[in-house]
Amino acid sequence: MTASPNSRRTAFCTIDLDKPGKQIGWIMLPHSTHDDAWGVTRIPIAVISNGKGPTVILEGGNHGDEYEGPIAICDLARELDPGTVQGRLILMPANNVHAVVAGTRTSPVDGLNLNRTFPGDALGSITQQISDFVANEIFPCGNAFLDLHSGGSSLDLLPSTVIEPTADSELHRRNLGAAQAFGAPFTVVIGNYGDMRTATATACAAGLTTVGTELGGGGSVRRENLELCRSGIRRVLIHFGLLADDENGLQPPPGSASSLLEIPAPRAFVYATTDGIFEPYHPNGQIVHAGDAAGRIHPIWEPAQEPVTLYYRSDGILYGRRHPGRVRPGNCCLVVASPYTGPF
Ligand SMILES: [Zn+2]
Predict the structure, then answer these.
(1) pTM to 2 decimals?
(2) Quick one: pLDDT at residue 254?
(3) Which of 118, 186, 216, 307 could form a disulfide with 160 if both were Cys (CB 3.0 to 4.6 A apart)?
């Protein structure tokens, strides 16, 4: 790795990303704490490189309570023979490592959501330094970025690939091609309310072909979603020419082009309006319509009080539900995805 153009950055990497073969090591972020004055926070990283070809970056553990991606990335780091690779894989299974160790969405060190800190700050808190390193040292090495998420502790989402909204038709075509190669039942354009401080928005802005996933959630691991994650990664790597299809026998299943949806925020979201326990009326995957009753909030500590009914605000398919039953005003209870309407 070349010296950082940002002389303020103190992080360093224990492996040479330009060396052929397989290496497993750490990004080391100096982290001076009460009980460890000259210690570091270690972000695991592996590189598997052979010959000429694209560089594909895989991220897991951006949120620490989403597990399918990190498991599949660690499998690749251990099992993939560099001789079967044409190009370079950069594998990062646990990027917000303090959150991963704690099993939480946000970092227990500084309370930040890594995926709202991009492109980071070399002089910021530990989470801001992680996004700075990923955005400014790792992304410039890559041609493509695969960001593996699930719904986490608070959401249960339909298994899907996710792409960023973009006005760049050529980037959209590349992102969509890679997303559909993954082979999930749905591909969803998600803009996070227009927030650009995410890993995928930053990778797109850097010109990388960029695909995310949402693979279930509830802070758990579902076998079928883990299988989809493992096989989907391989299909995307075959799509990029990094793995040979005949060797892995995992060509995209015929007719696997998934339905293209979008989340028309904010009307896609059904928010809690009061304190209580949310009773959803429908399972994920249900076709729903604006104005239909979506569920009720029960104030179970006030038995004389009537439950409060919530209503859908858009037409589409129920894409996600809040996982915990307990809700407070403003909590996202339901998410509706609708057919993608453009700009392409
Ligand atoms: Zn996530």
Answers:
(1) 0.95
(2) 46
(3) 186
